[in-house]
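WARN retry 2 of 3 for item q-0093 after timeout on previous attempt; input resubmitted unchanged.
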Amino acid sequence: MEWRHSAASILCLAKKMKLKFKIAGGLLAFVILLVASCIGYMFWHAHLPSDTASEVFFQEHRAELNTIITSVEREPKIDFVSADWVGNGADANDPAHVACAKLLKRLGAQFLRRDNGAIEIFFWGDGCAFCHDSYKGYAYIPSESGILKLATEVRSLDDKSLPKGKYAPIEDGTYISPLIDTWYLIRWECG
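OK item q-0093 returned
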């Protein structure tokens, strides 16, 4: 009788241990998957269109892009406009910001920013708090703009033509490629 009792308690203990191992194994697998996903997402970057496709889009929408530039140049207080979110406070009620946001949204742009005299309109790309940000679009760069000193001019904005980063697919920075007159293709990488 005693041996049956100890065999039953051993069997019960074995079942408990098996359950604990299953739970611990499941948690370990979840943690490994979560860490691998986070690391993979950090090195993932947006799939941006080729320079040729970007140039075709530019030619098809050049008039609308010029309209946006004209409206932004008339409003020196415009520094940043999101197509989805105009802003808060005074910007949310500012007719110039609202009109610019509507134009951007109609064209399919994500956001516009004024940087060192240049007006940059980004159409493609993605970013997040813990991954590498990668955006591509067009920059209107007048000759007096300071961005020409800060950006790196390259022949192509395709991944293989840009310097590889230590912790990201592309080295952080602003890269430009001439399009026509004062228009450039622009790629902004930020990790």
